[in-house]
């Protein structure tokens, strides 16, 4: 056997061994567990308490990850793939879920990242060569803390389908969302400056009392105020915009959405249905209910702006 044939045969054997090893690691349950456990050993700050199942029913328990300024704890992570979709040249994810997730971010402790150079032109077309389907994405009992801002989420459930440039968001549910923003301190100035500020306030109050009050214009009725508001364009003239995706939002429903801080907002229920295509935006349904009242709106718009929003709205 010539030297060239020996080299080719050796290269072929090595290639077959690599393919076989890769097929074992990714195609079998034991091989997949080996890869995941190896990642937990080799990735700094990553720890996984338990692994079970294969690609059709993979479950990770007790997942922890820590890096400077970021700490992540997840009670359970679940992934389920539909392997039969590969025969149709598509990717199908049956379920991607996470529960009991706790994320703490302290920006002062994070390593500064390198500045990102801005690209010359924005992306005007984003498409996938193979259809991608995510049948269920679910998050349960999630808590996120970023410095003094706290976010808690009871349940988030959605799904998506992406083919070429058409992205469809399946019925989505959000419940028990709380965003707690830090309150502005009453005395943000140093203590040494506070006496001077108090004296200035008292002098200002005396000047205001001595000054003649200016005549106040009569308050317009609420109906006239709303007519004037919607008679004007709600958005200024915008440049020519082409969205990179055609997005269809079948339904987003929310319950008990709350924002706290200097101002408190409570939305008892929310419903949104909308779609975009090229330069057209269609708002099919937008309903908001809160203790302060209700709001319903529908409308459409095209870019570049050829006129005002076409709105149908009801407010109480």
UniProtKB/TrEMBL annotation:
Per the record's keyword annotation, is Flavoprotein included, yes or no? Answer: no
Q: List this protein's GO terms for biological process.
A: protein secretion
Please name the source species.
Serratia plymuthica
Tell me where it resides: Membrane
Q: Does the keyword Metal-binding apply?
A: no
What is the name of this protein?
Translocation and assembly module TamB
Chief subcellular location equals membrane
Cellular component terms, GO, for this chain's entry? plasma membrane; TAM protein secretion complex
Membrane topology annotation:
Single-pass membrane protein
Q: Which UniProt keywords apply?
A: Membrane, Transmembrane, Transmembrane helix
């Amino acid at each position: 056997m010539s030297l060239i044939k020996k080299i080719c045969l050796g290269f072929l054997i090595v290639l077959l061994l690599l393919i076989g090893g890769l097929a074992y690691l990714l195609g079998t349950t034991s091989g997949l567990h080996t890869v995941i456990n190896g990642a937990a050993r080799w990735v700094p700050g990553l720890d996984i308490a338990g692994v079970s199942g294969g690609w059709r029913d993979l479950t990770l328990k007790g997942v922890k990850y820590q890096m400077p300024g970021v700490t992540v704890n997840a009670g359970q992570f679940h992934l389920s793939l539909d392997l039969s979709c590969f025969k149709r040249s598509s990717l199908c994810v049956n379920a991607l879920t996470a529960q009991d997730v706790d994320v703490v971010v302290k920006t002062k402790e994070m390593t500064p990242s390198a500045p990102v150079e801005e690209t010359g032109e924005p992306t005007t077309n984003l498409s996938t060569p193979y259809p991608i389907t995510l049948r269920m994405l679910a998050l349960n009992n999630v808590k996120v803390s970023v410095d003094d801002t706290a976010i808690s989420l009871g349940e988030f459930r959605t799904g998506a389908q992406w083919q070429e440039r058409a992205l469809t968001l399946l019925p989505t549910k959000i419940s028990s969302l709380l965003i707690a923003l830090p309150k502005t301190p009453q005395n943000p100035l140093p203590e040494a400056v506070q006496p001077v500020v108090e004296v200035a306030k008292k002098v200002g109050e005396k000047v205001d009392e001595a000054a003649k009050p200016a005549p106040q214009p009569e308050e317009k009725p609420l109906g006239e105020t709303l007519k004037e508001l919607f008679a004007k364009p709600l958005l200024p003239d915008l440049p020519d915009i082409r969205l990179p995706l055609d997005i269809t939002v079948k339904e987003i429903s929310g319950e008990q959405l709350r924002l706290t801080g200097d101002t408190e907002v409570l939305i008892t229920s929310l419903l949104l249905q909308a779609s975009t295509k090229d330069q057209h935006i269609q708002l099919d349904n937008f309903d908001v209910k809160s203790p302060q009242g209700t709001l319903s709106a529908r409308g459409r718009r095209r870019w570049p702006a050829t006129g005002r929003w076409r709105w149908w709205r009801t407010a109480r």
